[in-house]
Design brief:
alpha/beta, Glutamine Phosphoribosylpyrophosphate, subunit 1, domain 1, Rossmann fold, 8-stranded antiparallel sheet, binds fructose -6-phosphate
């Protein structure tokens, strides 16, 4: 988490880094700060809260700088406070530093430095970095940084300025991204390429332990032996992505409503209707032979993990390949067994989730398997480290809770499952039928979105409860997990997704008039079973809101409220059902006056373990 943005060039650095920082605000918004150099001294400003607070203060002060580093924070070490906000300094205030990541051994280093006489001002691990670098500084800044880096344990990215080196920003990446954007007479640094969008598309990615010394007229990169190295500039494709809210009150609502289009984008040029299969350009060259895949291991976190969980049902049902779905942070420390001919699928909207990247790196180090990733961000760390990446083409997802990325992930995973299935047991006719059902999905999503007003009415009624169950079976089980997560994260209401058949093994004890169930009843194969489970809920006076499709009648008599959606096949029902749970979460959060686009304590890109 945390976002870093820096600029050196002909324009006012303050305005530019604030704009860049706003695009990184999804990485954290506990506090924000900026540092630069003026007349041989460090100039800085930091404020608790969002970037707009910092911006206001800088405007009032009319601060102008030709070089600046800036930071938006998601607190790890130390509460969100002005003292703990970045930039941090060495004890003598010779350098100012911003940091993303965690220094795991900061306590030992801090104790050692304190014993040597360093006095600390904050509770952060960042201030330790500043003082370690200062300790080794003898006039050559890259050498001091190189001397300090081996002492720092953890994953981090750093940017710093030093008063003896006017006109220069030093940037370092270690398992946490820093991209340098190069333009005519100006250079940017950023935690991701997306924040560079309007500045430049010519970029240099810093690899681990490389040090960039950046000024307007040159960019020098040093390796860990203090040798200058050459790095290629890459040109990113400009996607012309739009990042305004338009007429919507929140990005989250806009992104929910974008889904008919984002689902079309995910399908675009990937459907081979004549052959009843799918096609991903370039995939075959990189993943030599999908025919020989015997097992699939899916790695992801949060909503992306839910998409992977849905995919496990899909791939096993259609392609008959065993699938293991793992939460990346658990998988990393599991000493897992990866069998031969396993294909790893790493799913991450941002492509920057630390745990997923670390799990992938470990598998690559062990040469354990080929890595296919599914991401929304070109140039992301995950995309660069995978053998092949399928992009969502969903456009930037700004709302912190993932909505359109989830449904795009489901579409891509369905198409991939179809391809594997067609290589194995599925005949062309079955493949064509699957594509027929998929092609209807965007219009079906539009028709659900037209019910937004009536879902908002239902949400008003349910906003009064403090605890929810989301119940479903088969494809609807992972869909329940996603529905419950959405409600939790944007409305702060406790919600638990559960397989409906498991309720009687314990959780049914919690059912009463005060605990409603959102019943996801769109899985035809298990419909009668969930009806029985709902009878058990009703018998204990639990209020029930059911999501059912047009073909289902039976449930209306036993539930309190019903939301009807168009009918599709079971394996695609998670997409349609999720549109409803997203709207429900959104309108409940809205009713409660919660901060929807940037929920408290969260960040969109989770770049720490
Ligand atoms: C929930 C949400 C998170 C992310 C998770 C993984 O709405 O957004 O649970 O899904 O942090 O992020 P990515 O997909 O970027 O790896």
């Amino acid at each position: 988490m945390c976002g870093i943005f820096g600029y050196v060039g002909k324009n006012n650095a303050v305005a530019i880094v604030i704009e860049g920082l706003k695009k990184l605000e999804y990485r954290g918004y506990d506090s924000a700060g900026i540092a630069g150099l003026k007349d041989g001294e460090i100039v800085f400003c930091k404020e608790v809260g969002k970037i707009s607070v910092l911006e206001k203060v800088l405007l009032e002060k009319k601060t102008v700088l030709d070089l600046a580093i800036a930071h938006t924070r998601w607190a790890t070490h130390g509460i969100p406070s002005e003292n703990n906000a970045h930039p941090h300094f060495d004890m003598n205030r010779s350098l100012a530093l911003v940091h993303n990541g965690i220094i795991e051994n900061y306590a030992e280093l801090k104790a050692q430095l304190s014993a040597e006489g360093v006095v600390f001002q904050s509770d952060t691990d960042t201030e330790v970095i500043a003082n370690v670098i200062a300790k080794y500084y003898r006039g050559n800044l890259p050498e001091a940084v190189n001397a300090a880096l081996p002492l720092l344990k953890g994953a981090y990215a750093i940017a710093l300025v030093h008063k003896d080196h006017p006109g220069k920003i030093i940037a370092v990446a270690n398992q946490s991204p820093i991209v340098i954007g190069v333009s005519q007479g100006e250079v940017f640094i950023s935690s991701d390429t997306h924040a560079l969008a309007s500045g430049t598309r010519d970029v240099i990615f810093l690899s681990d332990n490389e040090i960039g010394v950046i000024s307007t007229d040159k960019i020098e990169i040093f390796n860990c032996h203090n040798e200058q190295i050459e790095k290629q500039t890459e040109t990113l494709k400009y996607s012309g992505e739009e990042v305004s809210k338009g007429d919507y009150e929140h990005f989250t609502l806009k992104e929910i409503f974008e889904q008919p289009q984002t689902i079309r984008n995910a399908c675009s040029s990937r459907l081979m209707e004549e052959y009843g299969t799918s096609f991903f350009e370039g995939l075959a060259e990189h993943l030599a032979d999908l025919h020989t895949v015997e097992r699939i291991l899916i790695l992801a976190c949060g909503t992306s993990w839910h998409a992977g969980f849905v995919a496990s049902y899909l791939i096993e049902e259609y392609a008959r390949i065993p699938v293991q779905v793992e939460i990346s942070s658990e998988f990393r420390y599991k000493n897992a067994i990866v069998a031969q001919n396993t294909l790893v699928i790493a799913i991450s909207q941002s492509g920057e989730t630390a745990d997923t990247i670390a799990a992938v790196r470990e598998l690559k180090r062990a040469k354990a398997a080929k890595i296919l990733s599914i991401s929304n961000v070109q140039g992301s760390t995950l995309a660069r480290e995978s053998d092949f990446t399928i992009f969502l083409h969903a456009g930037p997802e700004i709302g912190v809770c993932s909505t359109k990325a989830f449904t795009s992930q489901l579409v891509i995973l369905s198409l991939f499952a179809l391809q594997l299935a067609r290589m194995r047991h599925m005949n062309i006719e079955e493949g064509r039928q699957f594509l027929e059902a998929l092609k209807k999905i965007p219009d079906q999503v539009s028709s659900i979105l037209k019910q937004a007003d009536s879902i908002a009415q239902i949400a008003k009624k349910y906003a009064q409860y403090n605890n929810f169950f989301f119940l479903g079976r088969q494809y609807m089980y992972p869909t329940c997990l996603e529905g419950a997560l959405k409600l939790k994260e944007i409305s702060y209401i406790n919600a638990v997704g559960y397989p409906a058949g498991e309720m009687k093994h314990g959780p049914i004890a919690l059912i009463n008039e005060e605990c409603p169930t959102v019943a996801l009843c769109t899985n035809h194969k298990t419909f009668d079973k969930i009806v029985s489970n709902l009878m058990e809920v009703k018998a204990r006076k639990g209020p029930i809101l059911a999501i059912i499709d047009e073909s289902q009648e039976k449930v209306s008599a036993i539930v309190d409220d019903v939301i009807r959606i168009p009918q599709t096949i079971d394996s695609l029902a998670p997409i349609l059902t999720t549109i409803v749970t997203q709207l429900l979460a959104y309108f409940i959060a809205h009713e409660l006056g919660a901060e929807i686009d940037q929920p408290k304590n969260l960040a969109k890109s989770v770049t720490v373990e």
